Amino acid sequence: MAKLTAHALAAAAFLAVTWTAAASAQECKPEDRKILTVWDQFEYYGMTAAGPAVEEIHQAFQDEHPCVVFSRSVFGGGFPIRNAVELALTSGEAPDVFYSWPSGAGLTTYANAGYLADLTPYADKYDWWARLPDWAIQRNSFKGKLYAYPWEQDLEYVYYNKALFKELGIDVPQSFDDVLAWCDTASAAGKIPIALGNQDLWPAVNMWTDVTALVGGRQVGLDLLQDRQDWNSAEPRKALDMILQMVEHNCFSPGFNGTSYNDSLLQFYSGQATAIWTGTWVIHAVVENMPEDKLDIFYMPAFDDEHPQATHMSEGSAWYIWEGSEVKDLAAEYIEFVSNPKWLETWVGKGYTIPIQKTPIDFKAYGVSDLIAQAFAKGQAMQDRNVDAFHTTAPPRVTFVMYNDIQGVLTGETSPEDFLSKLDKQMEEAKQAGEVWAP
Fold it and tell me: What's the CATH number where 379 sits?
């Protein structure tokens, strides 16, 4: 069994007492007494504020499994859980189940190294195939085998202040020229057209993914990420050129490379910016911070005459089972339990989470706001055109260059060609190391 991290020891001690009491009350046989170590990122605030939902579901699981005790550690959403998991896997002391990211090439690297349990038999047993859409299965597969259960649906679009749009005489853009005109009008009025905080590195890469989807489509994204097309090619270059045109038209926050993501959100909330181009992972925070009479959303329009409207998509994170776990069947049973559709109302209503599934969610049944329903319905309807998020799907060494070098592209210090050529070089190294996404 994996060792506990230091910050989980106190919780584990408490749970051990609970286990003893439960075992005594239920007269558990020694072979039924098990500890399930779980790492997740479900907090009570921020981008992964699903704590209330998870605790309710965990209690129900505990009620059905009185001889099982959780040893649970909660990490901050995003990089903290990813970094902790990588360290745990490479040290050989990982939890039984962990909820992390990325999929695509990140999963390929872990699966290729033998860190992950093959979930295909459990997908057969619980018929996860009927529950998950094909794109999500592919993102979480390696050489035809499923290695993770994808969860939150991530989509990117524009949140905008409709009161400011009306005040400035700006209409929702219907073309790329309209986007540039919006930027000119808002900037002339002393407003930030689109709040951008690229100090966190990933926002600009997400934006580049979106525009590549608009000028290339889903197949181009798959070809880039699975090494069937060079990064230094027509569609990625065109996408960068269009973003650079937006920079020239003062579309983004002044000093965007030194502005944090949280500060860009504050620029939008405070009315300094007319909009922010981000995604579903902050939808509940945005709804809470913006008055209903000011907030609306739209997806960026088609940027050329050859390609339809699209965006990027992925899963926020996914559940994995460590190959070294001694309780794989129990871990899989846990994943099946928390992901079962019977918990949809809990996940949506208390966890601010929209699970990935084939069957469309009836948002009205759960009292979800019209804006949230609109955002997901529109984005999910484009899934055959959307591109997988570059930074959560590319090999880690490629993502590192994306994060750090796109900043120079946006400020003119690095040419798009040099940036893209560097990605191709890193992609070749990733290929030699067996790190390229291979579903």
Answer: 3.40.190.10
| Whole-number Å distance between alpha carbons of 326 and 157 | 42
Instruction: Identify residue 243 by its one-letter amino acid code.
Output: I
Give 114's Cβ-side CA count (13 Å radius).
3
- What's the Cα-to-Cα distance from 214 to each of 239, 307, 393, 419, rounded to whole Å? 8, 6, 18, 20
Angle at 154 between CA 396 and CA 310, to 5 degrees: 95
Using CA atoms, how far residue 232 sits from 201, 304, 412, 427, 435, in Å, is: 21, 20, 17, 11, 19
Question: Hey, which bits of 179-233 come out as E strands?
Answer: 192-195
Q: What are phi and psi of 325, to 5 degrees?
A: -65, 140
CB burial of 187-206 (b: ≥16 within 10 Å; e: otherwise) equals: beeebbbbbbbbbbbbbbbb
User: How many angstroms from the chain centroid is the CA of residue 259?
Assistant: 21
Specify the number of domains making up the chain.
Answer: 2
Closest C-alpha to 384, from 225, 222, 267:
222
**Number of Cβ atoms within 10 Å of the Cβ of 326:** 12
| pLDDT tens, position by position, 409-437 | 999 999 999 999 999 999 999 999 999 99
> What type of residue sits at position 370?
D
**Proportion of the chain above pLDDT 90, given as a percent:** 86
Q: Residue 194's beta-bridge partner residues?
A: 252, 275
Strand-pairing partners, residue 159, are 276, 297
pLDDT at 14 over 60: no
Say if residue 407 is in the same domain as residue 270: yes
List Cα–Cα distances, 356 to 257, 296, 313, 315, 372, in angstroms: 32, 23, 11, 7, 15
CA atoms within 13 Å, Cβ hemisphere of 33: 16
Q: Is 178 found in the same domain as 55? A: no
For the stretch 287-336, pLDDT in tens is 999 999 999 999 999 999 999 999 999 999 999 999 999 999 999 999 99
Q: Which tokens in the block code for residue 253?
A: 């926050």
pTM: 0.91
Residue 439, domain member (yes or no) = no
Q: Which helix (H) or strand (E) holds 295?
A: strand 295-298
Both 113 and 142 in one domain: the answer is: yes
